[in-house]
């Protein structure tokens, strides 16, 4: 029910004037039902089986409201392939040991002097140069019929680290890992060309190692790995520090510049250039302070059911217009109707688009799915409205709102104009019905003549 109410609220927000007209129409229908005398022409009492049919056809309505718009489980894809890849930069902090003399009491209560080694930090910004080279290649993932923008990564980072302290220190290196990522293949750390595999410590969030460094000593650190992820790649500066001689190159061999987009809060690249069928982005900074990141948000792949999804997104509006216009037309033309007609008609309408959504995964084209769902639904509506006995305007309404109206969203550029035009035509049609109703309304009986005054 909350889903249905939210859709009605969005419609009121988008087209309040049309919502007002619909509200007046619904009020007129209920007024006619309450004022009508006797049993309507199309009575459920004449056909008890219609109650069972109406209940059976109305059940899909609940499922349509609750399940419409559901997509394949994104969390499942992320657990299998990988999540958005967030790579934070390398952090280094330096410590050293100093002897500390203190007086303590021994077990006999005597004061003795004891020397212990205390670890202290030597604050400094020791990363003097950063070079990042990342190649991101698209690799779309599919779950059910939904496609997701996956990618593979080939990552190489080179850092130059210098000990600016005037003493020997232990340099503690921390290279963060992207949270929740499923795989890091070929992960290698080299310092001055030497493989550090035997000295690395791993946990789910980072790789750490420690090296002794003399005053002024310079180390060249290289980190390489291959990984994969979904939707976006993001390089994040972990702490506020001065970025010196910083260059990050992001190579996108199969994403042209026109499809390049950036995650929220991302610094735009200093250089963008096309390269073959793809593009290359560069972030070059020096003596810069920032906490923002750098990266790319992948374009969303075309979904096989994109057309069906757009049609389903508008279909509910057509259904509301259908029910109101059918009821008002039947009242004005004097054909008579029973509220059960509306229930059956609404159930057929819902069943049409549920069938379209179901068969669209198994047929080669959207139009075939549309035909398989719309034609039987229009035929059922024809029978519900009385077949040959029904007036032509009444039979034309299901064709308009069950077959034509939802298709107006397919041309993206002019869809808003088409929908607005159809809404205007609907209001004009309701206005014509109102004029006909006024003309056909019976004239009020003349007032009885006033009684003659008694003679004196």
Short description:
The protein is α+β, with helices and mostly antiparallel strands. The protein contains nine helices and 20 strands. The strands form five sheets. It has an eight-stranded mixed beta sheet with strand order 10-9-13-7-4-16-18-17, with no helix packed on it. Strands 3-2-8-12-11 form a five-stranded antiparallel beta sheet, with no helix packed on it.
Describe the model.
The chain is an alpha+beta fold and 456 residues long. The chain has 2 domains: 2-70 and 304-439, no CATH class; 84-89 and 128-297, Immunoglobulin-like, CATH 2.60.40. It contains 9 helices and 20 strands. Helix 1 (2-14) crosses helix 2, helix 5 runs antiparallel to helix 6 (339-359) and helix 7 (366-384) runs antiparallel to helix 8. The longest helix is centred in the C-terminal third of the chain and has 28 residues, at 306-333.
List the helices and strands and how they pair.
Elements: H1 2-14, H2 16-35, H3 49-67, H4 74-80, E1 85-88, E2 91-105, E3 111-121, E4 127-138, E5 141-143, E6 146-148, E7 150-162, E8 169-176, E9 185-191, E10 194-195, E11 201-203, E12 206-213, E13 218-230, E14 232-236, E15 242-243, E16 246-252, E17 271-275, E18 278-285, E19 288-289, E20 293-297, H5 306-333, H6 339-359, H7 366-384, H8 392-404, H9 415-440
Helix pairs in contact: 1-2, 2-5, 3-6, 5-6, 5-8, 5-9, 6-7, 7-8
Descriptive tags:
elongated, 456 residues, Immunoglobulin-like, 9 helices, eight-stranded mixed β-sheet, disordered N terminus, 36% helix
